[in-house]
Amino acid sequence: MKLLMVKGKIFLALIACLSFSACIKDKVTRTYTIQTPVFASKAAVLAGISAAPAREIKETGKIFWLGSWIFMSDPARGIHIINNSNPAAPKPEAFIALPGNIDIAVKGNTLYADLFTDLLVLDISNPLNPVLKKTIKDVFPERAWVNGFYLDSTKVIVDWIKKDTTVDIEDGSRPMPGFGCINCSFAELNSGAGKSSEGKGGSMARLSILNDNLFVVNTGKLLSYSLSNYQDPAFQGELILGWGIETLYPFKDKLFIGSSNGMYITDIQNPASPQLLGSFTHATACDPVVADDKYAYVTLRTGNFCAGNSNQLDILDVSNLMQPKLIKTYPLSNPHGLALKDPFIYICDGKSGLKVYNVSNKQAIQLKQQLDVDDAFDIIIRENLALVVGKKGLYQYKIQADGKLDFLSRYGF
């Protein structure tokens, strides 16, 4: 009897220990690369904006194509200016150091670029001597926070210091907040994306120029600025859209806006007063969009900032702009930017590369080509040329009559 009582007590003690983590703790060590910010005075950074001869690309970012020039953000570091007079042999010309930059647009000799929360206007008549003409404050208020660090109106982050740190933790637990960025790239640290004379951005853009108007999206609004004076944009109106706004794509007098939970269609016939026409809601996922008169093509993807579980292409009927309707969904790997050249669509599908589909039959699109572009991110098409940005640089292709791409060049690393 006593033996049974002793065994019973031991059994109860074991149950108690299993119920409370304090009884048994498996200690393990983990090593993380911690990145802490280096702050600088915003006034000093703005006063010191300058350009240098072309330098090596550290990380590829968003792109803008104007005439024979390509502008590409090196996320959080600055902007590469590339002479593309010969697409088979692009020539880097200059680099504008601009901490916190992600988005760009160009009209004439004027460059529009973000610097964390602010939108800058630069005269680049001489790319090697950019001149700051105007600073529009708080256009991107969400970017006052960068990986848990707050930027007040007087400072910006100009660099990150990396340090390997080993910590003792309980098995299965996560590091406590406040360590700084862990194993992050510059793009992750700073994210929250016509006529040849007008220039063209990719489908991941958050800045777009139509005629003499600049349209900008932040996480909650569409903002409109008049460019009657290119170097002095004047605010003229806004449209509150909600939350999670990510990209905008212009088509004629419409803007198709991608958000983390859907697509919005806005009328900009009166640029000073954008009007919401219709919307389409989908599961939470990152969401760029391209469109034509009848259809919109939306890519959904999972990712660090998207919190979704969808990787797919949605094709929508937008013949009735006020009531977009889903036609068909196609699975993809991890799609990002895309471009349309009817009847073909070109999709940057992350590690699966660049994919070319014939979309003549919306119910049964056909894969025509798949190219090995490492971490394909975004694409711009102009006439019979395609400019693709991937992890290892900028790729250029000639578009054939059958929609397939012939390689011309790669500039990068």
TrEMBL record:
The keyword Cell inner membrane does not apply. It comes from Flavihumibacter fluminis. Transmembrane segments: none annotated. Residues 1-24 form the signal peptide. This is LVIVD repeat-containing protein. The keyword Lipid metabolism does not apply. Keywords: Signal. It holds the Pfam family LVIVD.
